[in-house]
Each structure stands twice: as C-alpha cells, then as structure tokens.
Automatic annotation (TrEMBL):
InterPro entries: CRAL-TRIO_dom, CRAL-TRIO_dom_sf, CRAL/TRIO_N_dom, CRAL/TRIO_N_dom_sf, PI/PC_transfer. Residues 114-303 form the CRAL-TRIO domain. Gene3D superfamilies: CRAL-TRIO lipid binding domain. PANTHER family: CRAL-TRIO DOMAIN-CONTAINING PROTEIN YKL091C-RELATED (PTHR45657). This is CRAL-TRIO domain-containing protein.
Length: 325
C-alpha cells in the first residue's frame, strides 16, 4: 500500500504546531483530521501522563475516539476519560479469564481467546466462553483489517435470560472488544495508517420471535461497546456484514436502507444464505479458504454458543463493578 502523502499547512508561517501536525500525519492520521487529533491530544495531556503505558494515546487510537464521537473533540475526550476509568476495573479481569498470550505469535498483540472453554481459569470464564458469541477470526481482510465474528443466531438468548448470565457473557464481550481494539492498534502502529475492524454477524439458527422477546439481554451484552470501545461505533468500524439472515430480515433491511445516508448504507450489508459475494466484496475477505467451514471456507469452525443448562448461573460473582465504590 502506498505511503500516505504528507500535506503540510500552507499559506502561513511555520509554527511549533505545524511540526505536530506533520508528526500526526506520519503516524497515520489523515491531514484533514490532524488538527482535531492534536487538539484532543492537548486536552488529554494530563490524563495521558496519569495513565502512563496503559493510556490509549497513540495518534490513530485518538483518531478512533474522535470518529466515535463524530469529530466532537470535547465528546471524544469525555469518552476517552470514561473508558480509561472503566478499563481499570474490568479489562484486565476479562482478558485473564477469557484468554492468554500466545507465546508462538509474532504479532504486536499476542493475546488470544481460549478456543476451549475448559482452558479458562475460573467458572465464570468457562461459562462466558461456552455460551458467548464474539471472537476474532484468523482470516484477515484484503486491507489487513481484523475480522470479527458473532454467531448471534446460535446464542441461547432464553437460557441466558433464565440463568441471568448477561453479566457473565458481557465479560467475554469486553475481552473480545479489547482484542479487536488492540489487534487493530498493533497493525495501525506498525503500518502508520488507521486500520479498523470488519464485523461478520451470522444469523444462522436465529429464532426471530425469541430474540425480540429477549432483546434487552442482547443489548445488555453488547451496549458496553458503544460507551467504552471506539472500534465498534458506526463511525469507527469499516463494515458490518450480516449473513444467513431470514427472508423477512433481508426484506426489511432493503426497505429501511433507503432512508439511510449513503455512508451508513455502505457500512452495513444484510444477505441471506447466498453470502459469498458479500463477504468478498463488502467484508473484503482476501483468502476465502481461511474462513470457517460454516461460512464456506476451509478453516475449522470456531466453538459456537452452547445451550445454557438449568442452574448454570448459580453462585457466580458479578463481573461489572462500580468504579466509584
């Protein structure tokens, strides 16, 4: 991929700020975004110093927060601060219970979610992995973007509600979203360009009425992303491709999409069982064979959410904590 062409400020004398803007461009921030990223960087200077190595302070990550809040610098700073206060209490726990570093990996981000739920070190982690849905695939998009996969259609929404496991599955979702963020950060920093995730949501097995009755459960599991993870907002994610959609869902989307702007329509594609073209054209899958077999590839299928047995949630400690307590 060609290197980004730097665009220095013209028609004005050089200033210390000009050097900062050029440095941001060298780190992968588009020229048109550099002034606001610089403003955000300045606004968060004390916070970045406070969090030290744990701060999500590299240029393209600040750009993610900025885009997640529609380029509103004050709102982006608020999201950044809220995210870091929340991360201190939740992210490390989620990563420790749902995965581990892969010592054989040469990637900049080496954590991987356990493929076998029994490998989790805690009962809560084992339940989260057995019955949750989010993971990052080994396949990558043609542009290098990490590819996320949610087997939403297999999620036992009724069982999760019955056993009150939404909090437990939220822990897996936090680990998954952190994995997505850090994987895309690592590629962005190495290649000096903004790399964002692509999401495939598989609706095979979806029981629409059951989902609608328990929609609050799914929202509880996934809503944390929009608040604390810039990678999953509509402005920050490159594409969302829903496959195996029931006929009614696909038809409904065709009707609704005419009322959306072109940018939003371009981000979302909903298709039924004939989805290969959508995965290559919209999700930009480069090597189709690297996809799981259930998507038509040749890689082993990832573990799918299992039915939730009665009594599964008994005695679980809550994952979410109140940072103010």
């Amino acid at each position: 991929m060609a290197a980004m062409e730097l665009q220095p400020i013209r028609n004005a004398p050089a200033s210390p700020g000009t050097g900062v803007l050029l440095a941001l461009q060298r780190d992968g921030v588009p020229a048109e975004d550099a002034p606001k990223v610089k403003e955000l960087q300045t606004l968060l200077a004390a916070d970045i110093e406070k969090y030290g190595d744990a701060a999500l302070a590299d240029a393209t990550t600040l750009l993610r927060f900025l885009r997640a809040r529609e380029h509103d610098v004050a709102a982006a700073a608020g999201m950044w601060r809220a995210a870091h206060a929340w991360r201190e209490h939740h992210v490390r726990t989620a990563l420790a219970e749902c995965g581990a570093d892969d010592a054989t990996s040469t990637a900049g981000w080496r954590w991987r979610q356990h493929a076998d739920a029994s490998a989790a070190p805690t009962p809560r982690g084992r339940l989260a992995l057995a019955h949750g849905m989010g993971l990052r695939l080994d396949a990558a998009a043609a542009d290098g973007s990490p590819v996320l996969y949610w087997a939403l259609g297999e999620l036992d929404v009724a069982g999760v509600a019955r056993e009150d496991l939404a909090d437990c599955l939220l822990m897996r979702q936090v680990a998954h979203l952190e994995d997505a963020l850090q994987a895309s950060r690592a590629i962005s920093r190495a290649e000096k360009r903004l790399v964002r995730c692509r999401l495939i949501i598989d609706l095979r097995g979806l029981r629409v009425l059951a989902l609608l009755r328990r929609l609050g459960v799914v929202k509880r599991i996934t809503a944390v992303g929009k608040t604390y993870f810039p990678e999953v907002t509509a402005s920050a994610t490159i594409s969302v491709t829903l496959v195996n959609a029931p006929a009614g869902v696909e038809t409904l989307w065709r009707g609704v999409s005419v009322f959306l702007n072109a940018a939003m329509r371009a981000k979302v594609r909903i298709v039924g069982r004939d989805y290969r073209e959508a995965l290559t054209d919209h999700a930009k899958i480069d090597d189709y064979d690297l996809l799981p077999a259930r998507l038509g590839g040749k890689a082993p299928d990832p573990p799918l959410p299992l039915p939730v047995p009665t009594g599964a949630g008994a005695g679980l400690e809550p994952f979410l904590v109140d940072p103010s307590s």
